[in-house]
């Protein structure tokens, strides 16, 4: 008899453990199963499970890899009427995050998409009834800096303000999610089919170009009723590579050939490639503009350095003039990169658009007949002087001078 | 400020040069490009200097900005090493290929194509289409 009761207890214990494996939350009765444990640069994954009947089921998917996101808040505060000028920044936003909502919320989602760039993630969550289940990015620690005009001039981020409380942190993390993923359909999908008996099914389409590594999947109906997480591994293989700082995977030949083509074209048109490279990079791939600006800039260092070396070899540089203006440019170069993170991608594109129009205007002026006539004279002098300078460098004559008639 | 270059003396309005250079540097480092196409007109048209003085000296001035901008971007965590390693060899390779092509194409044609391309790209960025 004792043995029998032991057997019953053991069976019961095993049963409890088994159902644990099937990812049911503690006492919630919500289960979740995924049909795959690995994907190769995205793909589809089917989720099935059961939840209490009559409740909407939400599925959160996020990557363990994290990226940085920042947002400069300069909107007028509705209560005080003042502009806060606070920089919100986190390094812990999941490189991928998407909340899948029941299919019947599709209309809400379409409405949000129609709002264009002004859409708000926190309002979207509320409209979908999903504010309660939003959890993974809410845990990202958001730092905030009080920016000041003086601080911006000397290129500091400003003073670090006290840590946000949990609720405020979650609210700010929503804004950062929007900054990071930009459009509603990147973070919300109406894919969960909930049946009246409480079973549900969702076919999740995980897009290409995401971070590699472990992804978690959790189904939830409210804040406290969540399933055990399931996980899958996203594999990124050559020639796709993951850019950790940008949080994006891409085929490395894309930027390689773009860079090659633009640098050739840049030399031919007499303008550095950065002008065309940066806007194209942010348009073609989901790369943050900060990373694009910060990574393209050093690529020209080498060509500039070798140019300076070649000119200096034939003493064709006025060090006095170059250094004098260069010092003013050092000050500018100190401030500029700070400003990059204060603007949004849309502002980046907007200002870049105007810069390119000005550049196009400059170049158009350089093709007008008057300029061409003057320029050909200048170029002829330049060529002749350079030739003489080269000869001087060869003969190492100290007292070389250029002709007075210019 | 007077600048001596190969036996010629030039009077340079250094205040204007520095203010212009500063503004170009802020924008250039903010958006991550060199700034040569803006520096050369500033120095030739704005400061009235001859092209043969400007070509080398403007490059030197820009180099200062690129160095500083690179350091600051790195400091703010905007630099992605792998991304750099993809683009850098391509930029170097382009620098070797370009002169070969340059002999065969008219610079005026290239400029006109570039203008059209820039306007199209600019209108796209401004959301016109």
Question: Keywords for this structure?
Answer:
heterodimer, A: 406 residues, alpha+beta, Immunoglobulin-like, 9-stranded mixed beta sheet, 4-stranded antiparallel beta sheet, B: 129 residues, mainly alpha
Can you give a write-up of this model?
The complex is a heterodimer of chains A (406) and B (129). By secondary structure, chain A is α+β, with helices and mostly antiparallel strands. Chain A folds into two domains: 21-235, Immunoglobulin-like; 252-367, no CATH class. Helices cover 45% and strands 21% of the residues of chain A. Chain A is built from 13 helices and 15 strands. Chain A has helices spanning 2-21, 106-114, 121-127, 149-153, 166-181, 184-187, 253-269, 274-284, 289-299, 301-313, 319-340, 345-365, 369-395, and strands spanning 33-34, 38-40, 43-50, 58-63, 66-73, 86-94, 97-102, 143-146, 159-160, 188-194, 199-206, 213-220, 230-235, 240-243, 248-251. In chain A, the strands form three sheets. Chain A has a nine-stranded mixed beta sheet. In chain A, strands 5-6-8-9 form a four-stranded antiparallel beta sheet, covered by helices on one side. In chain A, strand 10 and strand 11 (199-206) form a beta hairpin. In chain A, helix 7 (253-269) packs antiparallel against helix 8 (274-284), helix 8 packs antiparallel against helix 9 (289-299) and helix 8 (274-284) packs antiparallel against helix 12. The longest helix of chain A is centred in the C-terminal third of the chain and has 27 residues, at 369-395. Residues 14-27 of chain A have low confidence and may be disordered. By secondary structure, chain B is mainly α. The termini of chain B are far apart. In chain B, helix 1 packs across helix 3. The relative contact order of chain B is 0.07. In chain B, a hairpin with a 2-residue loop joins strand 1 and strand 2 (8-11). The longest helix of chain B has 25 residues, at 51-75. Chain B has two domains: 1-79, no CATH class; 80-129. In chain B, strands 1-2 form a two-stranded antiparallel sheet. Classes of the chains: A alpha+beta (406), B mainly alpha (129).
């Amino acid at each position: 008899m004792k043995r029998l009761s032991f057997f019953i207890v053991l069976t019961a214990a095993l049963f409890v453990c088994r159902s644990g494996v099937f990812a049911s939350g503690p006492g919630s009765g919500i289960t979740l199963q995924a049909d795959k444990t690995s994907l190769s640069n995205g793909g589809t994954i089917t989720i099935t499970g059961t939840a209490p009947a009559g409740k909407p089921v939400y599925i959160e998917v996020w990557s363990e890899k994290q990226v940085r996101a920042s947002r400069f808040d300069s909107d007028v505060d509705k209560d005080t009427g003042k502009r806060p000028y606070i920089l919100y920044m986190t390094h812990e936003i999941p490189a991928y995050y998407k909340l899948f909502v029941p299919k019947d919320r599709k209309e809400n989602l379409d409405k949000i998409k129609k709002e264009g760039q002004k859409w708000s993630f926190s309002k979207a969550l509320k409209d979908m009834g999903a504010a309660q289940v939003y959890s993974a990015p809410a845990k990202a620690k958001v730092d905030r800096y009080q920016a000041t005009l003086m601080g911006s001039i000397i290129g500091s981020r400003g003073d670090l303000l006290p840590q946000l409380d949990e609720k405020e942190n979650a609210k700010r993390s929503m804004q950062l999610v929007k900054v990071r993923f930009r459009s509603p359909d990147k973070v919300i999908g109406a894919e969960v089919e909930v049946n009246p008996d409480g079973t549900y099914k969702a076919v999740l389409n995980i897009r290409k170009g995401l971070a590699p590594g472990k992804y978690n999947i959790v189904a939830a109906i409210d804040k406290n009723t969540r399933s055990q997480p399931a996980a899958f591994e996203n594999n990124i293989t050559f020639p796709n590579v993951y850019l950790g700082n940008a949080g994006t995977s891409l085929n490395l030949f894309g930027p390689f050939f773009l860079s090659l083509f633009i640098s050739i074209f840049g030399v031919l048109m007499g303008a550095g490639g950065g002008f065309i490279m940066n806007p194209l990079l942010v348009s073609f791939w989901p790369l943050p503009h900060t990373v694009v600006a910060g990574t393209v800039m050093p690529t020209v260092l080498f060509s500039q350095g070798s140019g300076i070396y070649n000119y200096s070899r034939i003493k064709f540089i006025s060090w006095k003039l170059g250094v004098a203006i260069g010092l003013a440019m050092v000050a500018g170069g100190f401030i500029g990169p700070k400003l990059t993170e204060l603007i949004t991608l849309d502002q980046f594109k907007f200002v870049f658009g105007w810069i390119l129009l000005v550049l196009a205007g400059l170049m158009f002026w350089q093709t007008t007949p008057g300029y061409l006539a003057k320029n050909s004279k200048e170029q002829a002098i330049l060529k002749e002087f350079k030739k003489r300078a080269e000869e001087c460098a060869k003969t190492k004559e100290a007292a070389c001078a250029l002709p007075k008639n210019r | 400020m007077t600048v001596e270059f190969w036996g010629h003396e030039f009077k340079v309005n250094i205040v204007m040069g520095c203010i212009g250079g500063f503004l170009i540097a802020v924008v250039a480092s903010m958006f991550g490009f060199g700034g040569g196409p803006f520096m050369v007109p500033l120095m030739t048209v704005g400061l009235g200097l001859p092209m043969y003085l400007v070509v080398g000296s403007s490059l030197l001035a820009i180099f200062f900005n690129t160095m500083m901008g690179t350091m600051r971007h790195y400091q703010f965590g905007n630099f992605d090493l792998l991304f750099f390693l993809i683009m850098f060899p391509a930029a170097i390779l382009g620098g070797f290929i370009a002169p070969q092509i340059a002999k065969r194409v008219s610079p005026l044609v290239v400029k006109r194509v570039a203008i059209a391309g820039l306007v199209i790209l600019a209108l796209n960025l401004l959301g016109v289409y």
